[in-house]
Amino acid sequence: PIYLVQNWIAEHVIAADVRKGPLSRARDHIHEKGLEERISLRLGDGLSVLTPGEADCIIIAGMGGLLMTSILRDHPEVTDAAGTLILQPQSDIDTVRRYLHDSGFMIEWEDMIIDEGKYYTVIRACHGKEQEYLPEDNLYGKVLIDRGHPVLIEYLHNIIRKQKTIAGSLAGQDTDKCRMRIRELEESITVSETA
């Protein structure tokens, strides 16, 4: 929020958290920068702290995709009134992409970075309808695939390498469970290589 208002990306920001501790630390930082007039803090769960139309852009970051979609789904009146969603799910990113498509949003842009060995994806979505996505589009991001994003390519190489290692370690074991897991890994490798 501080960066957004200091750089006039946003005129006003409402920052919310379900816990008092993070809000207290945020209040201290906002006070240090003298931005109390432009950043409001609210204690509450998800989008319950907003009224429809109060925010034209909703940013949700730093949590799993299942929780993120639950937050968006629990308050459709707030989500639908926003023009833009910026989402940074830590897991289950394919679930977030499917939710967006099923809820009348289209993915305008995606970016992916690696920081200290962890991969992060950021999605910007707006209202609209997209064409049907292929399984690999939901898994890895059609925008990232179409751009040939270098971090996505690195990520896919890592996934394929790990899956081949696991499949190789199971290859000598002759049980139904191992054969089934090898087939699953081979199918997953094919999807990853297709992307």
Task: Name the descriptors.
195 residues; alpha/beta; four-stranded mixed β-sheet; two-stranded parallel ribbon; 9 helices; 6 strands; 23% strand
Fold blueprint:
Elements: H1 2-6, E1 13-17, H2 20-33, E2 39-43, E3 57-63, H3 65-74, H4 76-81, E4 84-89, H5 93-102, E5 105-115, E6 118-127, H6 135-140, H7 142-147, H8 150-170, H9 176-194
Parallel strand pairs: 1-2, 3-4
Antiparallel strand pairs: 4-6, 5-6
Explain what you see.
The chain has helices at 2-6, 20-33, 65-74, 76-81, 93-102, 135-140, 142-147, 150-170, 176-194, and strands at 13-17, 39-43, 57-63, 84-89, 105-115, 118-127. The two termini are 35 Å apart. The protein is α/β, with parallel strands linked by helices. Helices cover 50% and strands 23% of the residues. Helix 3 (65-74) runs parallel beside helix 5.
First-residue to last-residue Cα separation? 35 Å
- The helix fraction, in percent, is 40-55%
Number of strands: 6
Task: Profile the largest sheet.
Answer: 4 strands, mixed
What is the helix tally? Answer: 9
Which spans of ≥5 residues are poorly predicted at pLDDT below 50?
Answer: none
In the sheet with the most strands, the strands line up as 3-4-6-5
Report the radius of gyration as a whole number of Å. 20 Å
What share of residues are in beta strands? Answer: 15-25%
Structural class: alpha/beta
Reading the helices and strands in chain order gives HEHEEHHEHEEHHHH
Mean pLDDT: 89
Outline: elongated
